[in-house]
Amino acid sequence: MLGAATGLCVMLAPDPLPLDSARAILPLEVQAPTPAEQRERWAQALGVGGESSLLRQLGDQYQLSLDRIDTLAREARAALAANASHAARLDRAWEAARTANRRLMGSLAQRIETRAGWDDLILPAADRAALEQIAAHVRHRSQVYEDMGMARPGRGRSIAALFSGPSGTGKTLSAEVLARDLNLDLYRVDLSSTVSKYIGETEKNLKKIFDAADQGGCVLLFDEADSVFGKRGEVRDSNDRYANVQVNYLLQRLESFNGLAVLTTNMESSMDIAFMRRLQFVINFRAPQAQERERLWRGAFPKTLDTSALDFPALAAADVAGGNIRSVVMNAVFMAVARGVPLTQPLVEEALHLEYRKLGRLVL
């Protein structure tokens, strides 16, 4: 085709082409738009001026082409009145970009509805402060990396956090709170459908997830991460070699990821040390103390229920985690509805004994 064409010929391709032609060829590599260039395009397409935090986050959280920005900006402006304020246009553009990301993720990961807020978290002050720092890193990273020149050479803009601790201590709930505070979608990576016994398939599945998440701002949650981010072992056969290749790929992809990745585990000791070096935050969730358990008991019941007959300090003496408390409350409410009786202390204690038996503990 190049030999037959006369005049200037322009070819577009996602990757360099090994062309062997007698014609002179000038290869040009066009880089993806930087966050600053994306912000400039958003401002131009939306017709907004000045600098705002939401405009900065639009260019930072969503890695979009300039054509895609133009399309989403048209969608946002079409849904608003012509005289809509700049803040309204930016809010609508954020929602348009967020919805587009959902179409990209599709069935690659499970989207979790985030309804929990900071008031729903009952954690020690140090753990809560660490979570607030994670949100601050995501919200202000463009200002620190670009304006202040603190970018990490050869590394992406990823922020990775490890939440470790027993089940029911608030690890997944904390990820929900972070996603809601940042106004981002939370996606749980289903490791059962991602990890494959066939060589190379796990990397392909993870690549699809990371590529889709890179384009749209979201929070990736790797629940029970030790099953896929485990320690690399000694190579004894080909299976060990490919298992280590899989872990190495995850190390590289996690580092180049543009968003926030949250890993949860019940066994921190089983995590590969190379992952630990790449984590900006590690929070160890512990079992709640009596004072914290009382707050959990009080907040677990719906406000529409009459809980005046309950002895919350006595219930707080039960050494159970927050997830178990929510399970006890749910069972107690169902028992009260099924029996047609009000919520009483003996009824809640009966539900608590059921939870003890489920946990394999002695009921006193």
Automatic annotation (TrEMBL):
GO function terms (MF aspect): ATP binding
Keywords from the UniProt entry: ATP-binding, Nucleotide-binding
InterPro entries: 26S_Proteasome_ATPase (IPR050221), AAA+_ATPase (IPR003593), ATPase_AAA_core (IPR003959), P-loop_NTPase (IPR027417)
Ranges of residues in domain AAA+ ATPase: 157-289
Family recorded in the similarity comment: Belongs to the AAA ATPase family.
Name listed for the protein in its UniProt record: ATP-binding protein
Species: Deinococcus multiflagellatus
